[in-house]
Amino acid sequence: MIFSANALLPPPLPIGTAGVILTCLEWWAFEGVTYLAGVLGVVPLASQAIVLSLSTILFSIPQGLAASTSARVGNLLGAQRPWEARAAAWTALFIAAGTSLTACVSLYILRNPIAWAYSRDEEVARALETLIPIIALFQLGDGMNCVVTSVMQGAGKQALTGWLNGLTYYLLALPLGIALAFPLGLGLDGLWLGLVGGISLLAIALLIRVHRMNWIRESELCLRVEE
Q1: CA angle 68, 166, 91 (to 5 degrees)
Q2: Which parts of the chain span the membrane according to its record (predicted)?
């Protein structure tokens, strides 16, 4: 179906569109933080460029796991093997927890060397020393959210995850970050604390949804889609 005109008709089209929206909403939120960092000044903007690059590098680990998880869960559900799909999902989530925790601890321990490796400007490096521990916390929520979202995508829940991402980033994470950054004077640290809070709550909400998922029903829904 992927290589035919039928791919542009339901059900593939709505699922694909929801996936695109999900990805765009998340990345636009980070672009918004970068814009706000520029409003804060040169040093926050330089720090934002560095931590965004660092986060993108670390994000490649759960992203790779997520790609395989989505395909694995989707294939198993389509093959009417719901319990194997459930096992694959939770195995991936436990691996994500381990890799995210490792990234978090490593960043915190190596925060000073990393800060000075990225910038020889003392003002920027000092700002990074206080910001990197927040980025370390972000890795926990971001890694888990990435993989649990892939589980939901494998089950065909792109629309639900898209809505939750949009609501979390634009009604919670960004408003909270802006409030912490400007009225409360936390600057770039405040913007990232807002993201940490939002992504953590989103990951928890999706984990609860996966925990409550009726895997047998999801596999039966796959049959209806095929029909």
Answers
A1: 25
A2: 12-30, 42-66, 87-110, 130-151, 163-184, 190-208
